[in-house]
Design brief:
This protein is an alpha/beta fold. The protein has three domains: 347 residues, Up-down Bundle (ABC transporter transmembrane region fold); 205 residues, Rossmann fold (3-Layer(aba) Sandwich), CATH 3.40.50.300; 63 residues, no CATH class. It is 61% helix and 8% strand. The strands form two sheets. Strands 6-7-8-3-9-10 form a six-stranded mixed β-sheet. It has a four-stranded antiparallel β-sheet with strand order 2-1-4-5, with no helix packed on it. The N terminus and C terminus are likely disordered.
């Protein structure tokens, strides 16, 4: 894949070195005690499983045929009974005890192995989610939700399967191979060579398979994200799909993504169809050779170059242990399958975690407003709310800053203005002029690429993110609500993640007061369960206007020093807008307020109105001043007031050019930045 075709996630994924070793270092070490317990129990259980065939072989020779003494490897003869009846009883006890020990230690191994695997998976998933939340907005501008969900869910689950099954089965295989080989060589090294002759061939076959299948697993994991994205888009946009009558189109998109996943999976399975039967064939041939050579040995004497003696008991031990030997070797294919899957998944997990967080607290960052204003749980916001934009420029760029002098790539250019505490500043202008982006710089959702944004005289890059964002309330045009009750959504942020009793009467009263201020109390109170009504994912059970009023109530409860209203009344009717505007006027009376509005009638009383076009402030002043200049603001006002039928063609043409140029330049910027990242 060319560098220009890859996003930051793919770039950092390809840089991950030894992902599974890193998994054990960063996550396995903290849970190593569970791994040790599991491995120890696994070894004991497997060793205990070797006891019955050995005891049976010894009993056949010593008790039933009389062809040999009653001796057991590693057990002093003085500990063993001398009489045949006692030897038989002792053999029965050993065999039963071995099966009991196998069962007990297998149970211990299962508990320990599952604890280890699931604890590591939990840590990987939660750490990855925490890291993902802290990534810059540029990541989310480009990244598909489905692919991120694939990393947090599918890939984390693949690691759990590897840690739970493949790791322990590998240990089991190692113990079985070493233990069985040791026993076989102890009793008859010549027949043991026959039994173990297939192992070198199986090792070479496995090396070939791993080299061939690894790139196919990488390709399979990458298309899982595409499939999840197709499903997520279709489900989240189901209303649009139905109203557009495009069910067939969405089905085709999911079918295409599913077909790609099917093809990648089948490419892996085609190799497995060769590898798994091949391993079983090698193991089966080893068993057949043992049976054939051993059987001939017993009936006709040592064949060919063999010279040692083979008893019936030893032959039975060989046959039983070779049978135990076959199953673990045949399972190598599953272990390799899980290993390769986990390796590809861990690369994606660490690829996500390695993406640098560029918007974070700087060294020596201080709290905005001093002590007590660190988070929005504080009842007092000590920031005064003075805001200054000093020659601010901004360009969308992933993983690097763009040269501010490169005006073709900038979406905000040389913007300067100041707002005193309590001022209301309106931002108006055509769609795409940069109004929302300009105010997101205040929240540090993006960092400026030139100039500075200051609050109370401090550069926002020099204050802690928590204190900055706790002092800025933001109501977006596209309202975000979470599945839960209305009360939970209003409390969100203000009473989230704290020990305070969110169900207390005092908190409930404050929630109701906030809802009343947002003109939301009446419709909430009329619902069957009032404030405890569940609103569904993204608030789908509420109308657009109701969702917006709940979002406004949430900010009212936050009680910030600075307020940003990004088309906050765009989804309500005229009557509701009037009521909300009245409450917003009260809310903004003693705090600095920034209002983005397309309906100019809502911001006529603003202290200052900034008119943006193509990322630049082209006009500024009060409503009356701007009307007197007869510029863009006056033209927009005339159209909305019905005094002008339509904007002059020069404004329309500039808007068309602006949207086309911005789309082209942003695509070019992202490609250039990703290429530079690769070069670094």
């Amino acid at each position: 894949m060319a560098a220009d075709d890859r996003n930051a996630f793919e770039v950092y994924r390809d840089r991950v070195d030894r992902p599974l070793l890193r998994l054990f270092k960063e996550y396995g070490a903290a849970e190593a005690h569970w791994l040790v317990i599991g491995m120890t129990a696994n070894v004991i259980a497997r060793v205990a499983g070797l006891v019955p065939p050995v005891v049976l072989g010894v009993a056949i020779d010593a008790v039933f045929t009389g062809d040999g003494p009653y001796t057991l490897p590693g057990v002093p003869d003085a500990w063993l009974p001398a009489e045949s009846a006692a030897q038989f009883q002792f053999s029965v006890v050993l065999i039963v005890g071995a099966f009991v020990a196998t069962g007990v230690f297998t149970w211990i191994y299962g508990i320990a192995a599952n604890n280890f695997a699931h604890r590591v998976m939990h840590a990987v998933r939660t750490d990855s989610f925490d890291r993902m939340q802290r990534l810059d907005m540029t990541f989310f501008d480009d990244k598909q939700t489905g692919e991120v969900m694939s990393v947090l869910n599918n890939d984390a689950s693949n690691l759990e399967v590897f840690l739970d099954n493949a790791l322990q089965n590998s240990a089991r295989l190692g113990v079985m191979v070493v233990g069985i080989a040791g026993v076989l060589f102890y009793y008859n090294y010549e027949l043991a060579v026959v039994t173990l002759s297939a192992i070198p061939l199986m090792i070479l076959f496995t090396v070939w398979f791993m080299r061939a299948v690894e790139p196919r697993y990488v390709a399979q994991r990458s298309v899982v994200g595409d499939l999840n994205t197709a499903l997520e888009n279709a489900l989240s946009g189901v209303e649009l799909v139905k109203t557009s009558n495009t069910e067939a189109h969405e089905s085709d998109r999911v079918e295409t993504a599913s077909k790609r996943y099917f093809e990648r999976t089948m490419s892996i399975l085609r190799l497995n169809y060769v590898y798994r039967p091949g391993m079983e064939l090698f193991a089966g041939l080893a068993f057949a050779a043992t049976f054939a050579v051993g059987g001939y040995w017993l009936s006709s004497g040592p064949p060919g170059p063999f010279t040692t003696t083979l008893t019936v008991g030893t032959f039975v031990t060989f046959v039983l242990l070779t049978q135990q030997f076959v199953a673990p070797l045949a399972e190598v294919s599953n272990i390799v399958d899980q290993y390769e899957n986990a390796k590809a998944s861990s690369e994606r997990v660490f690829g996500l975690r390695d993406i640098p967080i560029r918007i974070a607290d700087s060294e020596g960052a201080v709290d905005l407003g001093g002590e007590g204003a660190v988070d929005l749980k504080s009842d007092e916001n000590e920031a005064s709310g003075a805001v200054e934009y000093d020659d601010v420029s901004f360009a969308y760029a992933e993983n690097a800053l763009v040269d501010p002098a490169d005006a073709d790539k900038e979406v905000i250019r040389n913007v300067s203005f100041a707002a005193d505490p309590g001022d209301t500043v309106a931002l108006v202008g055509p769609t795409g002029a940069g109004k929302s982006t300009l105010l997101k710089l205040l929240l540090r959702l993006y960092d400026v690429t030139g100039g500075a944004v200051r609050v109370d005289g401090r550069d926002v890059r020099d204050v802690t993110l928590a204190s900055l964002r706790s002092n800025v309330g933001y109501v977006a045009q596209d309202t975000t609500l979470f599945d839960g009750t209305i009360a939970e959504n209003i409390r969100y942020g203000r009473f989230t993640g704290i020990d305070e009793d969110v169900e207390s009467d005092a908190v409930r009263e404050r929630v109701i007061e906030a809802a009343k201020a947002a003109e939301a109390h009446e419709f909430i109170d009329s619902l069957p369960n009032g404030y405890e009504t569940r609103i569904g994912e993204r608030g789908v059970k509420l109308s657009g206007g109701q969702r917006q009023r709940v979002a406004i109530a949430r900010v009212v409860l936050q009680d910030p020093a600075i307020l940003i209203l990004d088309e906050a009344t765009s989804a309500v009717d005229t009557e509701t807008e009037m009521l909300i505007q009245r409450s917003l006027d009260r809310l903004s009376a003693d705090r600095t307020t920034f209002v983005i509005a397309h309906r100019l009638s809502t911001v006529t009383d603003a202290d200052t109105t900034l008119v943006l076009e193509d990322g630049e402030v082209v006009e500024r002043g009060s409503h009356d001043d701007l009307l007197a200049t007869d510029g863009l603001y006056a033209k927009l006002w005339g159209v909305q007031a019905g005094e002008i039928d339509e904007l002059p063609e020069e404004f329309v043409e500039r808007a068309r050019e602006r949207h086309v140029d911005r789309a082209v330049e942003r695509t070019r910027t992202e490609a250039s930045v990703e290429s530079e990242t690769l070069d670094d």
